[in-house]
Amino acid sequence: MVETADTRVMVDCGFSVQEIERRLAQAGLTPDGLDALLVTHEHGDHLGAAGAFARRYDVTVYASHGTVHAARDARFPRLQEVSSDAPVAIRGLQVTPFTVPHDSREPTQFTFSDGDRELALMTDAGHVTPHMVAIAARADGLLLECNHDPEMLEAGRYPYRLKQRIRGGWGHLPNHAASDLLARAANNHLRSLIGMHLSADNNAPDLARDALARGVGATPEDMEVATQDQGFPWRTL
Ligand SMILES: [Zn+2]
Ligand SMILES: [Zn+2]
User: Fold this and answer.
1) Which of 145, 184, 229, 236 could be cross-linked to 173 through a Cys-Cys bond (beta carbons 3.0 to 4.6 Å apart)?
2) CA–centroid distance, residue 144 to ligand 1 (Å)
């Protein structure tokens, strides 16, 4: 969820509608007040119940052309196709999609701005690109993928092909790549940083916190990661 004074949007909808409702209630929200549902790409943990949710609550879906066309359930009540690096205004919020290297049709992650502060969401990326570094360098808040620890992935229970997919250049960012991105971005005005999209099997929160801390030159105790069960509480930028 991203919210400004007059706008509230949800990004991705990878759970069941019922589970989304439960989680919204946990955050003190109802599904009615949403101005948009943004979808980053068609993988199930992101697009999942987007169609069902949008129909039930009559929400406009924003996604790239490729994402819409790769969706199994694309019966959206209202659809706004977006293009990378072309900002769209959703009431008082400016949303700018940007490309990341990921094995889906036309994935876009997003930056959000109210004209004052900028938040960047950056998950589902197989490697770090200069474009991602530039976005991370100017953000005031950053939600950054710390997907896996390569040694845990190697030793883990996933089948070989899935391991290759995750660690390939079009899969997911390992902890050390998140660290590298932060170091290259050298952003000294970053106000909020949260590790995202941690694998339950192939990562540990402490390892992700260590990596984030290395990247920004801070101590691991001050670093924060989202959990799969709870996410993270509201943050004000
Ligand atoms: Zn994905
Ligand atoms: Zn994902």
Assistant:
1) 145
2) 14
> What pLDDT digit, counting tens, does each position of 70-109 carry?
999 889 999 999 999 999 999 999 999 999 999 999 999 9
Q: Is residue 33 over pLDDT 90?
A: no
With a CB cutoff of 8 Å and minimum separation 6, the contacts of 67 are: 39, 40, 41, 42, 47, 104, 105, 106, 107, 108
Point out which residues pair with 146 in neighbouring strands: none
Instruction: Give the other-Cβ count within 10 Å of 29's Cβ.
Output: 17
Which residues have their alpha-adjacent CB atom under 5 A from ion ligand 1? Answer: 43, 124
Architecture label for domain 1-82: 4-Layer Sandwich (3.60)
Give the distance (Å) from ligand 2 centre to CA of residue 90. Answer: 24
Alpha helices in 105-145 (DSSP H): 130-138
Distance between Cα 41 and ligand 1 center (Å): 7
The amino acid that residue 94 corresponds to is: Q
- How many angstroms separate the alpha carbon of residue 45 from the centre of ligand 2? 5
210 CA distance to ligand 2 centroid (A)? 22
Q: What is the mean pLDDT of residues 168-190?
A: 97
Query: Where are the domains positioned within the chain?
Result: 1-82, 117-237
Predicted confidence (pLDDT) per residue in 112-134, tens digit = 999 999 999 999 999 999 999 99
Q: H or E element: which one contains 207?
A: helix 205-216
CATH T-level assignment (fold) for domain 117-237: Metallo-beta-lactamase; Chain A (3.60.15)
Rounded average pLDDT over 55-68: 98
Q: Is the pLDDT of residue 230 over 90?
A: no
Q: Which two tokens stand for residue 172?
A: 């997911």
